[in-house]
Amino acid sequence: MSISYVPVGKSGKWDGAMDWLQMLSGFSLILFVWCHAILESSVVISPDVMDAIGHFLESTGMVQVGGPLIFLVFLSHFVLGARKIPFRFDGQKTIWQHAKMLHHLDTWMWIVQIVSAMIILIMASIHMWVALSDLPITAAKSAARIQGGYWAVFFLILIPLVHLHVGIGFYRIGVKWGFVKDCNRAKFKKVVDVIVTAFVVLGLITLARYYFMSVN
Amino acid sequence: MQTIYTDLLVVGAGLAGERAAVEAADAGFSAICLSLVPARRSHSSAAQGGMQAALGNSVMGEGDSPDVHFADTVKGSDWGCDQEVARMFADSAPIEMRRLAHWGVPWNRVVPGKSIYYKGGKQYDKVEKEEKEGLIMARSFGGTAKWRTCYTSDGTGHAVMCTMDNRCAEVGVEVHDKTEAIAMIQDGDVCYGVVARCLRTGELITYLSKATMIASGGFGRIYPNTTNAVICDGGAHTLCIETGVVPMGNMEAVQFHPTGIVPTDILVTEGCRGDGGTLLDVNEKRFMNDYEPDKAELASRDVVSRWMTHHMREGHGVKSPYGEHLWLDIRHLGAEHITGKLREVYEICTSFLGINPIHQLIPVRPTHHYSMGGVRTNRDGAAYGLKGLFSAGESACWDMHGFNRLGGNSLAETVVAGGIVGKKIAEYLEGCETTFKTSLISDVVKKQQARIDALVNGTNGSENVYKVRAAMQVALNKGANIFRTQAGLEECVATLQETLIRARNVGLRSNGKGVNPELAAALKLEGQVKMGLMVAYGALQRTESRGSHNREDFPARNDRDWLNRTLAYWKTPSDSLPTLEYEPATEVVEIPPGDRGYGKSEIISADDNKE
Amino acid sequence: MSRLLKFNIFRYNPADEVSEPHMEEFVLEETDSMTLFIALNRIREEQDPSLQFDFCCRAGICGSCGMVINGRPGLACHTKTKDLSGEITLLPLPVYKLVGDLSVDTGSWFREMYTKTESWIHTTKTFDPTAIEERMDNKQAVDIYELERCVECGCCVAACGTARMREDFIGAAALNRVARFLIDPRDQRTENDYYEIIGNDMGIFGCMGLLACEDVCPKHLPLQNQLGFLRRKMGITSLKKIFKK
Lengths: 216, 611, 245
Ligand SMILES: Cc1cc2nc3c(=O)[nH]c(=O)nc-3n(C[C@H](O)[C@H](O)[C@H](O)COP(=O)(O)OP(=O)(O)OC[C@H]3O[C@@H](n4cnc5c(N)ncnc54)[C@H](O)[C@@H]3O)c2cc1C
Ligand code: HEM
Ligand code: HEM
Ligand code: SF4
Ligand code: F3S
Ligand code: FES
Fold this sequence. Notes:
Chain B is of the alpha/beta class. Chain B has 15 helices and 23 strands. Among the domains of chain B are: 256-369, Alpha-Beta Complex (Flavocytochrome C3, Chain A, domain 1); 438-557, Up-down Bundle (Methane Monooxygenase Hydroxylase, Chain G, domain 1). By secondary structure, chain C is of the alpha+beta class. In chain C, the strands form 2 sheets. A 5-stranded mixed beta sheet of chain C has the order 2-1-5-3-4. Chain C starts with a strand and ends with a helix.
């Protein structure tokens, strides 16, 4: 079934803490991804703006320190989230059959979250490695990578997956912790839909801008 | 085969059964409740309206006391009750309600200040007192002088049942659900427990006990249209009838509720009328105020049901594919009230009828609702005829309801009687030493296995269990309904006698393996038909009208000849009719028979000379 | 005129050696105001007397008749056939032990749940039969009743992906039960006591917010709100426990 790092029968003092950490790690990743997407999109206005931002972040050391930090949060979020993921086949079969039987959107959303998580784990790690090991960040370098072709496809997959995972995660934090009540759940869901769509569109525009940017 | 020993075995995990079991457990005895369904699904949980107890906290209940409650109960019973029992009940009810509060029931509480209420469709004001704030509130119910019905929204039975079952879990009362008692273990005049069939596996289990209690609720399912749950089939009564020595009291006293919805006969609570709902006829005109100017819709159930039937016979009913009905109107109570205090009613209407009671009328008709009759016990709850056998709740004829029970009195009875009888059982257990004879037990089990084998193999014939059951239900509905006549009852008895023969010739169509539902139905069918005969034959013999027993050919209440209780025995299994005996309705007379103050009041007094 | 309804019903009788789990088809003519209660009883009485299912109140108030109706756990007795398509698939509730066909053993599950959650009022006070009752605010009573309305049908647990993947997850009905006592002023248990019961991954922290419980509960209990309330409450308790040491 699932992996639980807490031995059964032991007082769950740390279960609460881990739930907090899962939420907080998730939440900081949400903030990071949304900021990241917005900053990245500055290239749409002009590559110079993006370079300026990149330069600013590097000169203040935010990338050098923040980058690995984010990677750490990313990893711990994975470890915490993994407690809930069915790694064994019978668990996967159960949840799959269950979702098929129930045709219930929130249950499907969880499956999307899990599947996207596994893919993001691999893709985002690669991406971070590449980005961080080839500083400084400049629009030109990014554009060159993307126009290479493979990276364009890479991001075409990663953009929707990341925003789906993050959007669903945002929604889930809202309902799980009771910040969103039953009476405004539907409204909240709509807001999240809009946010996700907006970010995916923004991401694609950014990607397009990289792709069609002239690199000299 | 499994054998389970316990001090107290309760057949039934409804309120009465669990309440008694808790009492025995508190006294240090082991107690097991058997139930067809998980305890909380017992039919007690379906009671919506509330429980009567003279707490007098509401301003509308001022001046109430156990005396007034007692008088209402005796009048309601049409002087058919045992007044000593009714007295015990009225005195203990307030304490039981408080005990339930202590155990966790979220009773609605008094909110001081002005509020509105409806009566007869008109709006009135009341001002609840500051000093009563937070005490147990009450609402109005049919046949009561004061607002006396304690409630939790409209899920009183459910909430009390949850609390009682919690209490059972706390004090270690075991509930063996999905377990059906099918035969009593009896040695001469002592009861030693029951043989039960496990409804998880189909296996037989013996339960051996020092004291056994029947708390199996009503048996409305011998009628085709009833508000009762499908498990209220009298299965456990049939155990007692088979003993030949335990009598059933007042089986002809059957209550019909005015407001079963059409077509499913689900009950909408008396609270609808208590809160101001009205009954309308085909012209959407009120009529109860013409028949009963004073109490109108809030006269006792037998009276309202009778006038409704009368009114429909006069041609004022609403025709529908399911027969005639009348309308219940609660529209004027407003959306907030209907979706709040009457939420279950709202849900029943929307989910079973597809109508919205805030804007639409509810189709209703009188429907079988309650069995006053049952296992006859003395005031300690000990059954007549068998030592170590007790009964309480709807299954018993303890007899505080006589020929008509008041709304809210039976749910209150379950906990009051459960408490009293539970105490008496604990006293009985105190001085009880028992040895169980193994030969006797294996005989009983063998006999039951043989019965099952005969049904499975079709040894006795191939009658279809469902068809025979339907024949019984139809006969009772036709002959032993709200209005009864000599001719109708004679025909009913004759039909039931034929049905009895058919019931003895039932054979299964399925293989009977495991938890076979056809087998479960077949095992109790013969006993059910016998109960039907007790109802119909008792009604035929009782040549008067009293409470819910209403003979058109004998419209007067006859205190001269019939101020008594019917005791119906099935002396030998092969009999084709029950043996009827009679005993005085009550030994202690606090309130001599008189006028009820509602209903028609033709009375042949005990002082009248014999014709 | 009226529709012919096609029922695909799960059949299996564990007590019968030759029985294998399979789906069986029954055809029935629809009548006015037909519910699954009426339909299943007709099938049993007219077509297959061995068909097992559970009904009790047939009025949507006892919780006996939970089953999976066209994929969704729900109460069969208050499901009208006219709200369904002409083809109706019925399965027993998952999670609970199968008794046979559509009948499952919810009773044992819930009894175990009462023991786990100690589902009763914990108080050191004793009852005094001569005293008047303790006062309680009506609003508080109404709030408790709101949570007490659970009929233990088991639908919420059967619909919960977490409960299906993890046998040890206690489920929304149990968590709701704890909330019921938590808000009851008569219960003297502290937050730490409740934390012992549900403050772990088998309890409130195991819930992944799938909200199928909220969406299928036939009595419309405010499960989402209660789960949120408990997570916050227990989350804070866990921090207190960690930092107070
Ligand atoms: C729809 C409806 C609404 C009502 N509303 C009210 C109201 O508002 N106020 C009021 O005062 N009264 C009301 N009543 C009446 C009241 O609910 C019942 O009389 C009362 O609850 C009966 O309780 P009980 O404990 O005797 O039996 P039940 O609660 O019916 O319990 C019977 C128990 O016996 C078990 N059982 C039965 N046969 C067997 C067997 N063979 N083997 C093993 N176990 C068996 C069952 O499983 C069950 O656990 C209402 C009744 C109905 C039908
Ligand atoms: C390494 C890859 C990742 C894995 C394996 C992973 C896994 C998971 C899992 C299993 C959950 C569900 C937890 C639950 O329902 O209780 C989850 C939730 C969440 N994830 Fe991820 N995730 C990954 C990456 C990310 C990233 C990159 C972000 C954001 C940038 C993110 C944001 C979130 C958020 C906000 C939640 C909701 C948190 C909560 O419910 O408490 N995840 N993740
Ligand atoms: C801290 C480390 C990170 C740095 C320095 C970084 C940097 C960059 C850079 C420079 C680009 C432009 C494309 C390229 O050069 O390849 C980019 C794009 C992108 N990054 Fe990151 N990134 C980091 C972490 C992440 C993480 C954790 C995620 C997701 C979980 C992510 C998701 C994306 C996506 C989806 C794009 C495409 C953007 C678009 O087209 O809008 N990045 N990132
Ligand atoms: S919470 Fe709702 S779905 Fe769950 S058992 Fe209770 S009533 Fe059924
Ligand atoms: S469906 Fe299950 S995961 Fe939580 S929100 Fe409900 S209990
Ligand atoms: S039978 Fe009681 S809820 Fe369906």
